[in-house]
Design brief:
- The chain has 360 residues and is an alpha/beta fold.
- It has one domain: Inosine-uridine Nucleoside N-ribohydrolase, Chain A.
- It contains 12 helices and 14 strands.
- Strand 12 and strand 13 form a beta hairpin.
- It is globular and about 60 Å long.
Length: 360
């Protein structure tokens, strides 16, 4: 098999997959989309704060790149939040800092110039009290953006734990009716899906900070669009398709593919992940925010049910109740729209960047 230029498959560690071509490719400032025809750039319809554990599963880097290449959203902040590192996991003592490095590497490979305050750090620890916030830069950034006098809808798109949005709410409860939380996480709801055989509980993102989940679900009035495990597990893409459609897209594609393969080596070291597919479970964060319908804006191509918000205990156990406020729970994800849009945007962007090197 021919390895894409810039991809290093030899080391069992995650590195930056960049070649000298980065210096020769075009650069751009966030908010500009010169690789797209003018008729496809109509201005942002909503604001997004992308909150994810970027030191972990690299599907979040694919999601972030997809968000940044989507002109209908204005990414106001990118939050590097903590994760629960497995024993022996690299950078286990500073997953927030390592996540910031991963974001910076991606922006460098993309040739993107961003404001210094775009990337913000989340908390180093989980909540220990459902009344005491952790006053992190990320929580403050969420509060500041939510309290701005702006009419466009704000989504906090969270692909990891709920520490930052919970702390933001505890710091300033008035944000609750000024944003919508889109969360990838939580177990299956009874009557809608069954957990997969052999599943380890709690669901991973929920287990990052059970107290934060209790704040968000049990006591806050935050609007929630939840993508639980049975929905995000639908987001499978074949390795062959990821390789054929992304790995060859210059340094940008090689970097994304390389991050994926490095993660697979780490999983193989733990004795898991022998599939020929990869779960891009964070991609619904883009689908539900950037790819809404034109008339009556909504993620109309995916299916959801409205259920009473459950409660969560301090051990991440979910308890269904009848008197919870109504929340959306997604049951079917439009993977065709989501992934075809991702591949199309990645290809257009990479061709534009590569054109500078070819011209030189």
């Amino acid at each position: 098999m021919t390895r894409p230029e810039g991809v290093d498959d030899s080391a069992n560690e995650r590195t930056m997959h960049v070649t000298k071509d980065v210096e020769q490719s075009r650069t751009w400032r966030y908010g500009e989309f010169p690789w797209l025809p003018a008729e496809l750039v109509r201005g942002a319809r909503c604001r997004v704060i992308a909150d994810n554990d970027f030191a972990g599963d690299p599907d979040d880097l694919w999601q972030l790149a997809h968000h940044l290449l989507s002109p209908s959203v204005d990414v106001r902040a990118v939050v590097s939040s903590r994760l629960n590192a497995f024993p022996g996991f690299p950078y286990a003592d500073d997953t927030v800092g390592h996540g910031c490095s991963k974001i910076d590497e991606l922006l460098t490979v993309m040739g993107m110039h961003a404001d210094d305050e775009l990337v913000v750090r989340g908390s180093e620890t989980a909540l220990t009290s459902d009344t005491e916030p952790i006053d992190s830069p990320a929580a403050r950034a969420i509060v500041a953006e939510a309290m701005r006098d702006v009419q466009t809808p704000l989504y906090v798109a969270c692909g990891g734990g709920l520490t930052e949005i919970a702390s933001a709410y505890l710091l300033e409860p008035r944000i609750a009716d000024r944003l919508t939380l889109v969360w990838i996480g939580g177990p299956e709801y009874p009557g809608h899906a069954e957990p997969p055989a052999g599943t380890v509980e709690p669901e991973y993102n929920l287990g990052i900070d059970p107290v934060a989940a209790a704040v968000v679900f049990n006591q806050s009035p935050l609007r929630i669009w939840q993508v639980p495990r049975n929905a995000y597990r639908q987001c499978l893409v074949a390795d062959s398709e990821l390789h054929s459609r992304v790995a060859g897209l210059g340094d940008f594609g090689a970097h994304l593919w390389g991050e994926l393969q490095a993660a697979r080596r780490e999983l193989a070291f733990l004795g898991v992940d022998r599939a020929e597919t990869y779960g891009m479970g964070d991609s619904p964060l883009v689908l539900l925010t950037a790819l809404q319908s034109g008339f009556d804006p909504d993620p109309a191509s995916s299916d959801h049910v409205v259920v009473p918000a459950p409660t969560f205990d301090d051990r991440a156990g979910m308890h269904v109740r009848d008197d919870g406020r109504p929340i959306r729970v997604y049951t079917r994800i439009d993977t065709r729209l989501m992934f075809e849009d991702m591949f199309a945007k990645f290809t257009a962007f990479a061709r534009w960047r590569q054109a500078a090197g070819a011209a030189g």
